[in-house]
From TrEMBL:
Keyword presence, Ribonucleoprotein: yes
Its job: Required for pre-18S rRNA processing. May bind microtubules.
GO molecular function (one): snoRNA binding
Coiled coil: none
Protein's UniProt name: Nucleolar protein 58
Biased composition (Basic and acidic residues): 450-459, 538-555
Region of interest (Disordered), residue spans: 443-568
């Protein structure tokens, strides 16, 4: 039996001298503790050396993919006739068996044997030292890892990060320079600021015109597309209220205009470069949100791979971290969008639908980023399909017609009125119509006539009860002063004043009496007892009050008498 062993220097074939030791897998490692014992188990039969590092890299990559190289196939055909080959990879063994018709073996004993060979490799292969094996394995591993990552200079997203950063800086500088030109030249021709709104056109006009007196003799048709604007410019130049400017000042203003125009040209060139880079590196992301928004997302995430690790909810609010943490701290509503707000799909949505569209767009953007970063394809099919779906969802939210794709809207079903009392398919009613029943009416005249009879007895009893405490009050008042009698008269007068008011509300009292008449007699008896108790308590309190007042009046009289005696 032969053993195929891969090394950084080449392929080695070992002959197994004692196959019986492979049966004892647990004790096989002991045979490779020393080089002498290892030579008794295996022996080097042949060695196929790699010519250079590229040959080694190609062979290693094919072995990882379980595919034998041409050199390996020739090497095995030459030395493995009629032999069983032990391999470390079962898939590689199947490929060798199919192409070369060589029986291959892969089990735990073979893996233990490979472990022993790796331990005594430098001793078993003459001419391969440890000082040479280390650098070779390190160089091969670096080359292999670079190949596995499929490193390509076309896929470097660092250029996108630098380009979008420079583009933003150029926009700021252009705006600053253009405003400086307007402010500087505005002293000479202030009316031009309102006539020409575009900064680039303004700089071109200033560079061509110079002094405002030259406006009448110049043709601005190449710069200004509208003839009316050109006419307004020439009219304003004649009647302008600006100050006079020297030639040296105009020269410096024109140089600043040259800077503005040069920066604008470079910005356009940089934008074209950024567009081409984005279409190469992230085509699906570009199809969904555009070049500028996609580049800003990549720059904010750090790289395309880092952005691919983020969920859709993070991509949705990427760029609004300050607002998010402020909302969490103050317990207010969190933001619905960040950098993704500048995408064209969110700009098309109504304000009430922007949150829903931004959430859907962030989810689709996360899928597109992952496909661009980790997928093998280089087309933008996923991005275009996702954009079409989002556009249809936007139309659904806005209530627009979707056409045949969502079904025809011609044959709408008629809404029938639901009538539970009508039979299906018939005009007759299930239940007959209800008629008016006069016997169910209540006559109020009878109840009002009977009600005044019952409270007469109760009113007599009340008058009799009121008469008794009245006599007691009179006996107490005879012993007192005239002040107590006056107060009682005032109380009686108040009661007499309240009585006509109560009589005015006759209807209410009648209703109350009718209710009392409808109550059972037991309830009226209990009510009379309670009223008697309340009246007794009120009478006793009135008597106490009168007694207190009499005592107080007697004390006052004594004091007055004492004062009179003292004065005398």
């Amino acid at each position: 039996m032969l053993v195929l062993f891969e090394t950084p220097a080449g392929f080695a074939l070992f002959k197994v001298l004692d196959e019986g030791k492979l049966d004892k897998v647990e004790d096989l490692w002991k045979e490779f503790t020393t080089s002498d014992s290892a030579r008794k188990v295996v022996e080097l039969k042949a060695f196929n050396k790699f010519e250079n590092t590229s040959d080694a890299l190609s062979a290693a990559t094919l072995i990882i993919d379980s595919k034998p190289t041409k050199g390996l196939r020739k090497f095995l055909q030459k030395h493995c006739e009629g032999e069983t080959l032990a391999v470390a990879d079962s898939k590689l063994g199947n490929a060798i068996k199919e192409k070369l018709k060589i029986d291959c073996l892969h089990n735990s004993a073979v893996m233990e044997l490979m472990r022993g060979l790796r331990n005594q490799l430098t001793e078993l292969i003459s001419g391969l030292g440890a000082q040479d094996l280390g650098p070779m394995s390190l160089g091969l591993s670096h080359s292999l890892s670079r190949y596995k990552l499929k490193f390509s200079p076309e896929k470097v997203d660092t250029m996108i990060i630098q380009a979008i950063g420079l583009l933003d800086d150029l926009d700021k500088e252009l705006n600053t320079y253009a405003m400086r030109v307007r402010e500087w030249y505005g002293w000479h021709f202030p009316e031009l600021t309102k006539i020409v709104a575009d900064n680039i056109q303004y700089a071109k006009v200033v560079k061509m015109m110079g002094d405002r007196t030259n406006a009448e003799s110049l043709d601005f048709s190449e710069i200004l597309s509208d003839d009316e604007v050109e006419a307004q410019l020439k009219e304003a130049a004649v009647i302008s209220m600006g100050t006079e400017v020297s030639e040296l000042d105009l020269l410096n203003i024109r140089e600043l205009c040259d800077q503005v125009l040069a920066l604008s040209e470079y910005r356009a060139q940089l934008f074209d470069y950024l567009r081409s880079r984005m279409n190469t590196i992230a085509p699906n992301l570009t199809a969904l949100v555009g070049e500028l928004v996609g580049a800003r997302l990549i720059a904010h995430g750090g790289s395309l791979v880092n952005l691919a690790k983020q969920p859709g909810s993070t991509i949705q609010i990427l760029g609004a971290e300050k607002a998010l943490f402020r909302a969490l701290k103050t317990k207010h509503a969190t933001p619905k969008y960040g950098l993704i707000y500048h995408a064209s799909l969110i700009g098309q949505a109504a304000p009430k639908h922007k949150g829903k569209i931004s959430r859907s767009l962030a989810a689709k953007t996360a899928l597109a980023i992952r496909y661009d970063a980790l997928g093998d394809g280089e087309d933008n099919s996923i991005g275009l399909e996702s954009r079409v779906k989002l556009e249809t969802r936007l139309r659904v939210l806005e209530g627009k017609e979707l056409g045949r794709s969502a079904g025809s809207t011609k044959g709408k079903p008629k809404i029938e009125v639901y009538e539970k009392d009508r039979k299906k398919g018939a005009g007759a009613l299930i239940t007959p119509a209800k008629t008016y029943n006069p016997a169910a009416d209540l006559v109020l005249g009878q109840s009002t006539e009977e009600t005044p009879k019952k409270p007469e007895g109760a009113s007599k009893k009340r008058k009799h009860q009121e008469a008794e405490p009245a006599g007691a009050e009179e006996t107490i008042q005879e012993d007192g002063d005239q002040e107590g009698q006056k107060k009682k008269k005032k109380k009686k007068s108040k009661d007499s004043e309240d009585s006509p008011v109560a009589d005015a509300d006759g209807g209410k009292k009648k209703k109350k009496k009718s209710k009392e008449s409808e109550e059972p007699p037991v309830a009226t008896a209990e009510g009379e007892k309670k009223e008697k108790k309340k009246k007794k308590k009120s009478d006793s309190q009135d008597a106490k009050d009168v007694a207190m007042e009499t005592e107080a009046s007697g004390k006052k009289d004594k004091k007055q008498k004492k004062k009179k005696h003292g004065d005398e």
